[in-house]
Structure formats: structure tokens, C-alpha cells
């Protein structure tokens, strides 16, 4: 986002944020020398607010806990070896559908990755604090299998001398980042909820998602995404964000934290601090740099994280971002004491668990060797180290840092105490196991699916409707559905089921001239053409396809299933519907809106800039048309 546009946005949002009570007004902190114990010294350290400008940042005390929790945490800490304590700081993955898998391929991959055969042995060897599930690591075949895997891993943890259960984690943001798939209930994700703008919907979506995760033994969800997406070119956040208004994002972030933790029963992990919404680089492949000033950070990026802290989020995930105005040393935020301690712990007052984003990502590996990264992260104020690229190396590096005095055992104890307290407070200690017999009654049940459709029905956004092209009449002819992805057939099938003859003709994500010519030929004889789009800015063939179809003289309706910015690239479209997702429930809602069974109730949660001028707003945040 350009500086000029950011200044205008900041001025408009400052007034709104003050009205909503989410603008941070803490005085600018005074620069302080880097503490000598830190492995990340800088000649010009970033400001870190303290009561004594000459003193290094103090260790933030843990939140108040019940006497029973405190007694359990004290007892566990006193009984654990240093090696066991360090193990509690790591969350990683292991291949396999069962805790003691003997599948040859998974065993081979585990041996290469962890030096052990399976997840059970990984827990025993490294005394892990947590595990994370992915489809590609063969963890997520079906709900009952996941529940049995979780139980097997928890038994392995509780069989250890420390008897500390695991945090079983995944990334179930919904929308584009969905790990537990069908038959689990699926929602269209953050930006769709931003289009609804209803905190009750956000809370209920999180409650349902949390209940289904807990049913399969997952106790921590790396969600919600608290980043404020103010950059239409953001390659990694986009529809994962609630949108571009920090006040709305703050309200929905707090609602989802409450839904996950109070009702859903899983730990929420608000991400990616200090805010990933104005990046043009994907931190999986590089180190993004954000040029916001401290004032801009407080007004634009910080409010959702402040709201998450106020709502009692169990965890905050760091982002691998360079943020020079917050830390002039250039260290990624994950490794920055001024950001992790000075801003998150001291300015925002957060005393819970801080977890890194994956330490295998390029954004945190560009600056320092892999052996230094976990030590620097702990020195910066982080507690949990997620997916280091070499777990044995990382574990040994932390042990060596304590032996050398680079880290103190007290510093390790502070993080372990936070992790153990979190496990107690979120019920993981009292109830670590999934009830396998109840999984099928909870995951994807009829009530959850009905609620998902109801919520999603309030998110579909009508951005353009020239000549009252929409709604379509079921008896008003037939339609060709073309464009990108599996949503083409899904949408055509749903329209046909509702009485509108519809033919699917997938053209591909980035159609070439031949694919475009075939789609134009296929449109012959159809009354209306619907074009499914998905990130047109990165796939120029989609714009050429819409232009060619519009030239036939038939009404053309574009339906974006990813970022809503696509409309800026389709000036010839007669109507445009933004879904923010291609999950089945989003297509169900879209078909109902296209045929007028439901009205379009969503509004844009972001500004849509013109394709040829990012400083010119084509459709403003809050725009959304209605049927008469």
C-alpha cells in the first residue's frame, strides 16, 4: 500500500478507532539499551516501553491462576529435568495416522526428520510440549482416526515421568486454510465473516469449529487471523483476514477467541503479531518488510491483537516480519525483543503464551543460522517454538545456551510455566483425551452444517449489478458456468438443482487463448454466462476470458471465490458477486443469491482499489448492493 493511501486510511481510521475504543494511545516508548543477555544486540535498539528507561525489559509475570493450577504447575516444574523443560517449548509434526505407525513410508520419513520411527517415539525422545497435524504428514484421514491418533500421542506424553499432556494443534482457520476437511463443518473463512461484520456469527463459527476440533482431540487452533489486510497485493494473508478495518477486525478477533475458548474448548492463537496485513512478500519464501510508523502500527495493526489480549487469548503467534520502525535492528519480529517483549508483553499487557510461526519458513531463516533462531526467539520473549527445520539441532541449541549462560534456566522456567498454566487453564490437564464414541455425533452434525449455511448466507456480497442482471430467473433460460477451479462444476450443479439449466465448462485458473476461444464457443446458445474467478491479479487469463465473453453480448456475471479485488480487473462484467471462498457452503449460498432465494447481505470488508491505480478506490469498504 502506498504511503499516500496509508496516510489517508490512517486519518479515516483514527477517528473510527477512537469512537470504537480500540486505538492504542500509549505514549511513544523511550529507547533502551539492549540487555546484555540478549543474543540480538543492536547499536540502535527499537523502543521498548518500561517504567525505567534505563532498565532492560522486565520479565512479565504469568497471569493469576487458581491455587490448584499453581500447585500442579509448581509440582511439575520442580520434578522436571532441564531436558524435559526444554522439550515443553517445542511443537512439531510427526508422520503417520497412528501414534505408533509402522507404515514403511511414514517410518522412513520420521527417521529422516526426527531420528525416530513414529510420533510416540518423538514424544518420548524430545519430551514435546505439543504436536501439529497436517494432511501431508498423514495425520488427518477422518475424524475417528484423528481422535485415536490424538489419544495415542497423549498416552505417550502421560507415560513420561513428567506426566504432562500435549497441546495437540492445527491450523483450522477455515476458507483457504482448512486442515480438518469433510465431514467436518466448513466455513468460508475470515474475510467472509468480515463481510457479515457480525460478532455473533464470528463467535458461533469459532464455537462450532472449536467443538469439532476438541472432539477429535485437537486442543489448540492457530486462529483467528488478526492481521488487518490493507494491501490488495498481499500474497499470503488476503481472505484469511477479517478485512481492512481494524475496529471490525478487533471485534471479530475477540469474538472468535471467546468462541474457541469459552465454548469451543480449544486454545485460540491470534496471529501474526505484530501484523502481516500490509506485506507484499510471502514470509514462507522471504522476509517481508512493513514500513508503518509506530503511530500507524498502533492505529492499523495493533487493535485486533489488543482485543485478543483483552478477550483472554491463550496464545499469540508471531509473524516473521521486518518492521524497522518497531525494531531498527532489522531482526524478524519473531526474534525481536522490542517487539515480542516491549510491544506485545509490555505495551499490550499480554502475559500468556507466545508461539512462533513455523521456524522452517524462509522469513525467519534469512538472517541467522538455524541453531541460533530458537535461542534468539526465547531471548526475545517467545515461549513455544513451532516446527524448527531440525528439531534435534534446535533442542540441543537451547540446552547449550543454558549451559553457556546465554539463556538462564529461570528464563526457560518462565516459558514452561506459561505453557503448563495454559494446559491447565484450558482443560487439557483435566481432560486430555477425545471420546471416540462421540466423534461422529459432533463432527459435521446437522445443526452445525445448518448454522454454517445460515452464517455464510449473510456474507455473500453483491458488488456490481448493472441493468438488474441479478437475480437470475430459474425459468429465464439457461447459463454457462466457466472460469477457474472446481467451483465451476460445483456452482453449475447447485444452480441446476434449483431449476436453472446450467452447463459447466472449466477454463482453468489462467486460461490461454485456446481455452478462451473454447469458452466463447461454449457460450453460444446460453442466455447468461457466469465466470468463476480466483485472484485475477495473478492470473491475467481470467481478465481476458471475461472480456472475450462480454464481447459476445451476453450478460456476464463474475463470481470471485478468493479475494474480492478481482472486480477491478473485470470492467466489462455486468454483475459481480464476492464469495471470499470456494468451500461448498459458500457455493450453496451463492446459488441461492444468484436465483434470488436469498438476498445479498454482505458488504465489502476491504477497499477495492482500481487495477491501474492502487491509490484510487473503486469500491469502498462497506459497499454492498441489495436486491429491490
Derived structural class: alpha/beta
Shape: globular
Approximately what portion of the residues adopt beta-strand conformation? Answer: 5-15%
Low-pLDDT stretches are: 14-23, 25-63
Rounded mean pLDDT score:
90
Number of strands: 16
- CATH fold label of the largest domain: TIM Barrel
CATH architecture of the largest domain: Alpha-Beta Barrel
Share in helix: 25-40%
Largest beta sheet, briefly? Answer: 8 strands, parallel
Rg over C-alpha atoms, rounded to the nearest angstrom: 25 Å
Number of helices: 21
Query: Which strand order spans the largest sheet, edge to edge or round the barrel?
Result: 7-6-5-4-3-2-1-8
Fourth CATH level, the homologous superfamily of the largest domain: Glycoside hydrolase, family 3, N-terminal domain
CATH class of the largest domain: Alpha Beta
- Count of the domains: 2
Question: Could you list some keywords that capture this structure?
Answer:
8-stranded parallel beta sheet, alpha/beta, 11% strand, 2 domains, TIM Barrel, beta-N-acetylhexosaminidase, 39% helix, Rossmann fold
Walk me through what this model shows:
There is one protein chain. This protein is an alpha/beta fold. It has 2 domains: 3-41 and 66-446, TIM Barrel; 460-619, Glycoside hydrolase family 3 C-terminal domain (Rossmann fold, 3-Layer(aba) Sandwich). It is 39% helix and 11% strand. Strands 7-6-5-4-3-2-1-8 form an 8-stranded parallel sheet. It has a 6-stranded mixed sheet with strand order 9-14-13-12-10-11, with helices on both faces. The radius of gyration is 25 Å and the shape is globular.
Amino acid at each position: 500500500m502506498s504511503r499516500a493511501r496509508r496516510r489517508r486510511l490512517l486519518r479515516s481510521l483514527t477517528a473510527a478507532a477512537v469512537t470504537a475504543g480500540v486505538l492504542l494511545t500509549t505514549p511513544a516508548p523511550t529507547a533502551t539499551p539492549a540487555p546484555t543477555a540478549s543474543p540480538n544486540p543492536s547499536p540502535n535498539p527499537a523502543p521498548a516501553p518500561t517504567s525505567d528507561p534505563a532498565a532492560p525489559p522486565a520479565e512479565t509475570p504469568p497471569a493469576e491462576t487458581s491455587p490448584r493450577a499453581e500447585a500442579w504447575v509448581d509440582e511439575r516444574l520442580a520434578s522436571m529435568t532441564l531436558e524435559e523443560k526444554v522439550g515443553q517449548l517445542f511443537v512439531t509434526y510427526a508422520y503417520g495416522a497412528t501414534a505408533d505407525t509402522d507404515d514403511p513410508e511414514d517410518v522412513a520419513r520420521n527417521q529422516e526428520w526426527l531420528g525416530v520411527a513414529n510420533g510416540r517415539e518423538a514424544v518420548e525422545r524430545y519430551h514435546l510440549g505439543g504436536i501439529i497435524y497436517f494432511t501431508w504428514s498423514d495425520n488427518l484421514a477422518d475424524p475417528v482416526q484423528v481422535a485415536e491418533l490424538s489419544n495415542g500421542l497423549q498416552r505417550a506424553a502421560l507415560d513420561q515421568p513428567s506426566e504432562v499432556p500435549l497441546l495437540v494443534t492445527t491450523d483450522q482457520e477455515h476458507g483457504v486454510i482448512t486442515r480438518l476437511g469433510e465431514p467436518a463443518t466448513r466455513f468460508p473463512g475470515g474475510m467472509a465473516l468480515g463481510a457479515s461484520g457480525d460478532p455473533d456469527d464470528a463467535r458461533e463459527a469459532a464455537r462450532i469449529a472449536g467443538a469439532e476440533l476438541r472432539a477429535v482431540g485437537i486442543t489448540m487452533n492457530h486462529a483467528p487471523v488478526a492481521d488487518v489486510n490493507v494491501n490488495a497485493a498481499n500474497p499470503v494473508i488476503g481472505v484469511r483476514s477479517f478485512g481492512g478495518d481494524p475496529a471490525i477486525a478487533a471485534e471479530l478477533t475477540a469474538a472468535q477467541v471467546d468462541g474457541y475458548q469459552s465454548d469451543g474448548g480449544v486454545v485460540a492463537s491470534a496471529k501474526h503479531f505484530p501484523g502481516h496485513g500490509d506485506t507484499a512478500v510471502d514470509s514462507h519464501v522471504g522476509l517481508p518488510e512493513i514500513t508503518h510508523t509506530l503511530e500507524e502500527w498502533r492505529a492499523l495493526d495493533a487493535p485486533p491483537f489488543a482485543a485478543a489480549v483483552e478477550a483472554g487469548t491463550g496464545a499469540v503467534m508471531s509473524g516473521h516480519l521486518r518492521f524497522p520502525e518497531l525494531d531498527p535492528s532489522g531482526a524478524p519480529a519473531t526474534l525481536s525483543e522490542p517487539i515480542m517483549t516491549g510491544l506485545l508483553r509490555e505495551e499490550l499487557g499480554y502475559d500468556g503464551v507466545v508461539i512462533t510461526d513455523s521456524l522452517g519458513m524462509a522469513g525467519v531463516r534469512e538472517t541467522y543460522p538455524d541453531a541460533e533462531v530458537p535461542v534468539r526467539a526465547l531471548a526475545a520473549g517467545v515461549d513455544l517454538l513451532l516446527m524448527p527445520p531440525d528439531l534435534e539441532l534446535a533442542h540441543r541449541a537451547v540446552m547449550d545456551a543454558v549451559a553457556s549462560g546465554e539463556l538462564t534456566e529461570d528464563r526457560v522456567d518462565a516459558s514452561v510455566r506459561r505453557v503448563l498454566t495454559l494446559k491447565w487453564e484450558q482443560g487439557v490437564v483435566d481432560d486430555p483425551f477425545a471420546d471416540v464414541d462421540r466423534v461422529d455425533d459432533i463432527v459435521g452434525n446437522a445443526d452445525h452444517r445448518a448454522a454454517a449455511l445460515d452464517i455464510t448466507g449473510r456474507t455473500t456480497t453483491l458488488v456490481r449489478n448493472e441493468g438488474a442482471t441479478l437475480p437470475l430467473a430459474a425459468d429465464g433460460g439457461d447459463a454457462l458456468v466457466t472460469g477457474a477451479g472446481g467451483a465451476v462444476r460445483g456452482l453449475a450443479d447447485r444452480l441446476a438443482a434449483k431449476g436453472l439449466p446450467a452447463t459447466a465448462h472449466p477454463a482453468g485458473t489462467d486460461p490461454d487463448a485456446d481455452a478462451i476461444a473454447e469458452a466463447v464457443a461454449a457460450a453460444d446458445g446460453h442466455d447468461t454466462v457466469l465466470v468463476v474467478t480466483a485472484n485475477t491479479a495473478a492470473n491475467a487469463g481470467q481478465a481476458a476470458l471475461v472480456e472475450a465473453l462480454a464481447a459476445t453480448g451476453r450478460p456476464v456475471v463474475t463470481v470471485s471465490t478468493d479475494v474480492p479485488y478481482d472486480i477491478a480487473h473485470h470492467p466489462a462484467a455486468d454483475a459481480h458477486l464476492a464469495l471470499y471462498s470456494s468451500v461448498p457452503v459458500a457455493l450453496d449460498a451463492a446459488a441461492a443469491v444468484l436465483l434470488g432465494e436469498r438476498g445479498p447481505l454482505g458488504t465489502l470488508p476491504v477497499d477495492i482499489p482500481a487495477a491501474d491505480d492502487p491509490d484510487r478506490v473503486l469500491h469502498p469498504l462497506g459497499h454492498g448492493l441489495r436486491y429491490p
